[in-house]
Amino acid sequence: MRGRGWILGLALSLGWLSAGAPGLFAQGDAGSREYQLKAVFLYKICPFVEWPPNALGNGNTFVIGVLGPDPFGGALETIAASEKVQGKKIVIQHFPSAKNYQPCHLLFISNQPDANAGEKTADDRLKAVLGKTGGRPCSWSATLPDLPFRGG
After folding, report:
1. Contacts of 82 (CB under 8 A, 6+ apart)
2. CA gap 69, 107 in Å, rounded
3. Per-residue pLDDT band at 65 (split at 50, 70, 90)
4. What is the 8-class DSSP label of residue 128?
5. Among 21-30, 60-69, 118-127, 130-139, which stretch is predicted with the lowest mean pLDDT?
6. Which of 16, 43, 118, 124 has its CA 20 to 30 A from that of 6?
7. Average of pLDDT values for 59-63?
8. Residue 140 has what pLDDT?
9. What is the rounded CA–CA span in Å between residue 85 and residue 9?
10. Is 66 helix (H, G, I), strand (E, B) or coil?
């Protein structure tokens, strides 16, 4: 049954892209379009995550964090301005480095290089942030092929 949910989620995401996000793909190169699509996917996958009881808390916000350089070009902020996750307002937080990490519900680990940060790669960022989550529930997303086997 869980596999069908992913297929349904992908179908809904594609439908939303074609019908409900006209301004999101208005301009930009192929790279920025890729991350616009990934931003929509991050948002659309949230209802399919099985959160532990009380993981979303009693607050009125759902926090999506971006660790490292933001490749989305404002696409996450565009989504957050008009959408909600399980009735909660979406807030986007940017963490230049794992040392800046604050608890969030969904964390995207950027694979963009950053010579100015303590962690230069997505691998470095993942290793550095794993210990900072403190056992709190957090869903991870990154373009690392073996992320599920590394605690993400």
Report:
1. none
2. 13
3. very high
4. H
5. 21-30
6. 124
7. 87
8. 58
9. 14
10. strand
User: HSE on the CB side for 12, CA within 13 Å?
Assistant: 14
pLDDT value at position 143?
A: 59
Question: Cα 3–149–91 angle (5° rounding)?
Answer: 70
Single-letter amino acid code for the residue at 32: S
Is the pTM here over 0.85, yes or no?
A: no
Residue located via tokens 């992908």:
10
**Rounded (5°) CA angle 37-16-55:** 75
Q: Does residue 150 contact residue 126 with C-beta atoms inside 8 Å?
A: yes
Q: Alpha-carbon distance 66 to 112, whole Å? A: 11
Residue 119 has pLDDT above 90, yes or no: no
Q: Within 10 A of 15 (CB to CB), how many other CB atoms are there?
A: 11
Q: Which residues is 106 bridged to in the sheet? A: 64, 139
Name 140's bridge partners: 107
**Bridge partners of 108?**
66, 141
